[in-house]
Specification:
single chain; about 130 residues; alpha+beta; 4-stranded antiparallel beta sheet; 8 strands
């Protein structure tokens, strides 16, 4: 879905990504002409056009608070794939890690090898 505004800003998101619409979170697929999005500072952006587009790539970054600014439009990092409260709860361990030691999930970028290197070595007895 690509949503364009009167001031020339536009944002593309999957149908199920949440945007701030008319002062509350709503999925991008529900946005209609005449609705209002928010800019990075919370100022209203009047929607003038909504269209279905096809783009390459899939992005879903996570933030500590769940909000993000995409192309100058305030959005949420959450999608309808996982209920918002549940997604926020699932991200709690990463927020705690970051708050405790400044560690983010980027240390997992190398996948299983990184995870295995953090586990105790040697024989474990149960």
């Amino acid at each position: 879905v690509q949503v364009s505004t009167a001031c020339g800003r536009s944002v593309a998101a999957t149908h199920g990504h949440y945007l701030y619409v008319n002062g509350r979170l709503a999925i991008a697929g529900s946005v209609k002409v005449g609705d209002r999005l928010q800019d990075a500072h919370g100022a209203p952006l009047d929607v003038t056009k909504v269209e279905v587009v096809t783009k390459t790539g899939l992005y879903n970054p996570q933030t500590l608070h769940g909000d993000i600014v995409v192309d100058s439009v305030r959005a949420s990092t959450f999608t309808k794939a996982v209920e918002i409260k549940m997604a926020h709860a699932l991200m709690a361990p990463l927020r705690m890690m970051y708050n405790a030691v400044g560690l983010s999930a980027t240390f997992l970028d190398k996948g299983a090898d990184t995870i295995m290197s953090m586990l105790p070595k040697g024989r474990t007895e149960l």
